[in-house]
Design brief:
By secondary structure, the protein is an alpha/beta fold. It is about 40% helix and about 25% strand. Strands 6, 7, 8, 9, 10, 11, 12, 13, 14 and 15 form a 10-stranded mixed beta sheet that branches. β2 and β3 form a beta hairpin. α1 crosses α2, α2 crosses α3 and α4 packs antiparallel against α9. The longest helix is centred in the N-terminal third of the chain and has 37 residues. It is globular, with a radius of gyration of 23 Å.
């Protein structure tokens, strides 16, 4: 069962900040469900330190408390959580590792939705507390560089209303004046032209412009060591592979379908093509769990879940916006962040990302000549 907990931080001179994190419980048989929050923190600390004592110290718990939590949890689950051996410290059992994986899966699936909801709450609470309603309305496909940008917004207390949605939905919202910035991504090379065609009816080449966010790698996620010997897109049609996909309507799903068509590969031959996840991280978590052999997404997600990555295509991520809005103070503040050395350095640290052109302002004609 999933419970949502609200952690609200109120500041006297800046906007209200809201953080929403998943909170889940797990039961075994007829026993009362166990709250996993404290246990998961302890298991993660043990995994990182290799010691119950060090994990307890890191979490500011007593050793007795940590040991008691482990034992009571093992009794509740009917499974052991830790294993100790001479010379190798304390390690997690497969069951405990699966609990940590489950928590990462919960966060990977729910974080975009919860972040969007938190943003809506911030705006409404800010109107009540401060009487302010002017914000930067950002609609964007979920991505790691976008998340890094939001962190910069928060540090500078820039009022932003975020809604994560598919790239096509974002640019459509821009055309309806429902947002100020619309994030979308376009592959480089052979698939650029058909991808642009899917956005063209919502972008006005006379009145809109683009801000370059980053270039990033998309490709295949495979388990460490690539035991299945996956090397190219055509391998997805192999009968011995289980695939996990992005959901229909996402920019990444659109890119994959363009590549399959270009390669003459029928999606009907791909086992698991209709198994979908909402984010790159959720796809990576699915592969990391062993429930699929291969997925498709951005390199950063593969790196964060300890997977091997097979690069297939590079793509550019842009924010579309009306050119006239560049004179607005809040939009100019966004541009200043994007063009700052600090933000560019942060983007460059993301696996598979390149910030060489980050912050560059382009016309649609210049970007897609």
């Amino acid at each position: 069962m999933i419970l949502l907990t609200f952690n609200m931080l109120f500041f006297s001179y800046i906007m209200v900040k809201v953080s929403i994190k998943p909170h889940w419980k797990i039961g075994h048989g007829d026993a009362a469900p166990l709250d996993t929050t404290e246990l998961l923190s302890l298991l993660l600390a043990i995994q990182q330190t290799g010691s119950i004592a060090k994990a307890a110290e890191h979490l500011h718990h007593s050793y007795r408390h940590a040991w008691g939590l482990l034992r009571s949890s093992e009794q509740a689950f009917g499974h052991s959580l830790i294993a100790s051996g001479r010379g190798r410290g304390t390690t997690l059992t497969p069951f405990a590792s699966k609990l940590l994986w489950a928590d990462r899966m919960v966060n990977a699936r729910l974080s975009p939705t919860l972040d969007s909801l938190a943003s809506e709450l911030e705006i409404e609470l800010g109107k009540t507390v401060e009487g302010k309603s002017k914000t930067v309305r950002l609609n964007a496909s979920h991505g790691f560089a976008v998340a890094a940008l939001l962190n910069h917004f928060n540090r500078l207390s820039l009022p932003v209303e975020v809604r994560y949605r598919h790239s096509t939905d974002a640019v459509a919202a821009l055309s309806r004046q429902e947002c100020d910035l619309a994030g979308f991504h376009v592959p480089l090379g052979d698939y650029e032209k058909p991808a642009i065609a899917s956005y063209a009816k919502w972008l006005n080449k006379r009145s809109d412009c683009l801000i370059h966010l980053a270039v990033r790698n998309q490709g295949l996620f495979v388990t460490p060591g690539n035991p299945k010997g996956i090397h190219e897109l055509a391998d997805l049609a192999r009968s011995d592979l289980r695939f996990v996909n992005r959901e229909a309507g996402s920019g990444t799903r659109m890119l994959l379908e363009l590549m399959l068509t270009g390669g003459g590969i029928s999606h009907k031959k791909i086992n698991g093509f209709e198994n979908t996840e909402f984010t790159h991280s959720a796809v990576a978590a699915f592969v990391a769990s062993g429930m699929a052999d291969v997925g498709f997404g951005v390199q950063t997600a593969a790196q964060r879940f300890g997977l091997d990555f097979i690069p297939l295509v590079r793509e550019r991520y842009f924010f579309a916006l009306p050119s006239a809005s560049l004179n607005e103070p809040l939009v100019q503040a966004v541009v200043d962040i994007l063009q700052s050395p600090a933000f560019r350095a942060e983007v460059n640290q993301l696996a598979g990302y390149d910030s060489s052109d980050t912050g560059q302002i382009l016309s649609l004609q210049d970007a897609f000549a």
